[in-house]
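Sharing a chain and its predicted structure for anyone who wants a worked example. Both blocks are below, sequence first, tokens second.
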Amino acid sequence: MKASKWIWILGICLGLAGTVWGEAIKNPDTLIEAIVSNQESLDPYFQYDITSNEPCKNVYENLLAWDGASITEYLPWLATQVPSKENGLISADGRVYKFPIRQGVKFHNGNDLTPEDVEYTFKRAMIFDRAGGPSWMILEPLTGFSTIEDIVKHVAGVPYAEMFDNDGNLIPKFKDHLVKVYTDYIDPTVKVEGGSVVITLSNTYAPFLSMLPQGAAWFSILDKEWCLEVGAWDGKADTWWKYHDPKEQKDPLYDKMNGTGPYKLVKWDNGVELVLERNENYWGEKPKMKYVKILTMEEWSTRKAALLAGDVDIAIVDPQYLGQVEGQPGIRVHKGLEQLSVYMLFFNQTINTEGGNRYIGSGQLDGEGIPPDFFSDIHVRKAFAAMYDTQTLINDVQGGNAIPAFGPIVKPLIGWLPDMAEGHRFDLKKAEEEFKLAFGGRLWEKGFKLTAAYTTGRMVTKAVMDMLVYNARKINPKFKIEVQTFAWSTLLSDYLKGVYPLWGLEWNADYPDPHNMAYPILHPTGFYGAALGAAYHKWAEQHINPLLDQGLVEFDLEKRRSIYEKIGRLAEENAVILFLYQPTRIHVERTWVKGWFNNPITESTGRHFYLLNKSL
């Protein structure tokens, strides 16, 4: 062979090698994700947000799981069978569910999974019941009450808070009442029968089975022995109130994790990084990646640079920035994906002023503030709704990666209201008319000043706020809205205290049923409904609560559809919340990431890293 031909072949080989070397995977044994916000807690029954939920769902596991991308088909997980009436694991009346528990599963500390762990987990979740947390999803189907404090009041006729003295000590005469709450309402709901756990519901509960799979961390199974060792509830009936509704860092599981899942916690530097390591003793197929790192990067420019450089494998990309990464070498973009989420602005109808409130200025209708009942005036709420330009937000800010939202229930769940579009449109003339009607005309004359809140890094929500600021001043220069940004954990804590007059947040479904959208958003004890103020609560008790109760026990599909449509229309017609948009999902990853797929419910609560790997 001639030398020139050898040189030609060698050149091709070197060129190919250079191509491969140029695309070499960075950090080949570690999957790295860049997110926006910090975690609030690592306790699966304290945390109730995507950022905190993500590590929990990778460390802990549930009785069931979703089958791939389906939101209607289940897989047995820590339970060995999916209960049904056909296999005899659901009673004829639909109230009793039996779960055979998988044997041979170990927690990360080496303890064996037992049915007693499942029993303890659910009972601990019910007595734990932190304000604004996820425990309602267990309490409601099992006890018929949304909070354990509701059970206390039902049993004793006295509010829970009034049973304690100024030092926080239980007044002795109430002890028997609190013990009765546990023995009569909590303890009977979950029992061990041989190698199984039996759960008895207070009534038929249409969405119960859909709540259990590992789409999120709620219903995660804890190690009872370990929980007792680290100082969690001791499992006794006469101590439970000592472990109820703790402050986040007073919770023994705040910064500790011990699950049965494919990954275990090795480091948590909150606001910087969280590191997971592969569980080498995992009972199922071991994950392919040895490590997972979740990095908090609030600034888009930082996330973008890391993604393009290959220093992170998956990054949160807001729609307005999608064009900056789409089509870039080494980047894969999935968009237009189904997502069970709704973004909203919330109106607090009875603002908390105890100890002062800097978000409402003077606290008067004098042009330098607002009164605490500012948003209890329906004309104010309707005016704010009319200042919101849905199409501009979706087209120009979201880049078309969203659809309008009407009421709390999103597509494709039953109860979604696409026909409400004509009653929910941008109209500054209508906004002016409503403002002139508010407070008998005094608002238009005096003006107002308030501070609105949103989470740091949520640039789409900021765009909505800026839109309202501009349009309010355009309508009347006396209308002043100031905007302030907060870390997620701070905003969560403060909105639950009822101090914000107006704030923006989103709701991502915990399970794929309309009840899970309507209840937490609109019910007076729900995650958001609880913070909408006493005036709203009074209205909701008459108009919303009865419908929510009906939808919960109704199994007929069309009847349920009608009920949830009524709920959505009431919410829209009374402008109780400004429903902004339903996003379509965007997932941005390096092309070397393999194994990702979209499940509308599991992906809305953070990534599941179990099936992911990196390869060329």
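Comments welcome. The chain has three domains: 30-36+261-278+287-337+588-614, 61-244, 341-583.
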